[in-house]
Amino acid sequence: MKMKKATLKDIRRQIARVQAAGGFYAKRLKGIDPEDIKTQEDFEKLPFSEKDDLRDAYPLGLAAVPDEEIVRIHSSSGTTGLPCIIPYTQKDVEDWAELFKRCYEIAGITNKDRIHITPGYGLWTAGIGFQLGAEKLGAMTIPMGPGNTDKQIKFMQDMESTVLCATSSYALLLAEEIEKRGVKDTIKLRKGVIGSERWGPKMRARIANELGVELYDIYGLTEVYGPGIAINCEYETGMHYFDDYLYFEVIDPKTGKVLPDGELGELVITTLKKEGAPLIRYRTHDLTRIIPDDVPCPCGRKLPRIDVILGRTDDMVKVKGVNIFPGQIEDCLKDIEGASSEYQIFIDHEDGKDVINLFVETIFTKKGERRKLEKAIKDKIKSVINVGVTPKAVDIGDLPRSEKKTTRVFDYRY
Ligand code: ZN
């Protein structure tokens, strides 16, 4: 996607701002004159930043404004050690509310809606982001926070909530509970705004059917305001995002090269207006693609789009010149009858060539059925990912399970 002139201007201003503040980015961008960033190519030579960089700046090393301008902090939990602290100015808080309000509008939500917010309130950005946007929209908010299913359902009934904001797992739990209690007729929900984590089409269909709602994926991360920076419209052609506030790139996570629109890779975000803690070329490790704009969204919005988040890029492997992500394999297997969600990928180098053996658990026991299944998997992966694999059907329970995150890829080439 071609970078706009206004975007370059914003970027120059952001760079000057972080350099003047003297924090982490001043060091990272040392020797770079913002006025020299005249083209997209100039911008693409700037170094990336990472969550570890933000963590190293703990506690307030990211602040790009004087103390008295910071009105709030949020923090994203790291898996290890220190959290990242993100300072916000009053304008950042207002901008975030504006972005979130736009998300609600794209989802067809209005000030007549009653928005039931179940994500948590506190240091992390979830609940309060949903709240800010809803208030700015002028809708009635019901700030529930998570937990206490009885109370959730009672308030949904008595307050006549029309919009449910939740994580996918909590939305499913509530949907099942409503179904179990046989109270679906007393619930007025019409839409669900679901935090974009990885969730399969089967789960999505269950939530939509059991609650009787339209679902919207909302995307965001604490480092970049919080949730509310991208959402799909009713046509589900990907998530629209706001290029007047944010610049998105998708890169090859191994080489750092910017990828053409349409190709899967890692989302990198640059903030264009943020004051408290601007980010320059921040690597999200989220796997997605920029949707090419040659076919506009039928909703008529000019806003650019990214695909739903397919997973994390940390698990990527490059085989036969193609980047492969376990999330893609999972997506292929989901549509194939008889294939379970348990699989493992073994990559090896044989006779001068990379080979991919893909073990998939199946309920099929007959030899003929299994050969058919293997062929279906091979064809599907060839057509979607454009890489040749050798599938091997195995019994349910054959592949090792782990308490922690399951390892999907074993690379024996090196
Ligand atoms: Zn649209």
Q: Return the domain count.
A: 2
Strand order of the largest sheet: 4-3-5-6-7-8-9-13
Name of the top-level CATH class of the largest domain? Alpha Beta
Structural class: alpha/beta
Distance between the termini: 36 Å
Which topology of the largest domain does CATH recognise? Answer: Rossmann fold
Overall morphology: globular
**Discrete helix count:** 11
Query: Which small-molecule species are bound to the chains here?
Result: zinc ion
Q: Helicity level, as a percent range?
A: 25-40%
Largest beta-sheet characterization: 8 strands, mixed
- Please count the beta strands (DSSP E, at least 2 residues each): 20
CATH superfamily of the largest domain: ANL, N-terminal domain
Tell me the CATH architecture of the largest domain. Answer: 3-Layer(aba) Sandwich
Report the mean per-residue pLDDT as an integer: 93
Radius of gyration: 23 Å
Uncertain segments of ≥5 residues (pLDDT<50)? none
Approximate strand percentage: 25-35%
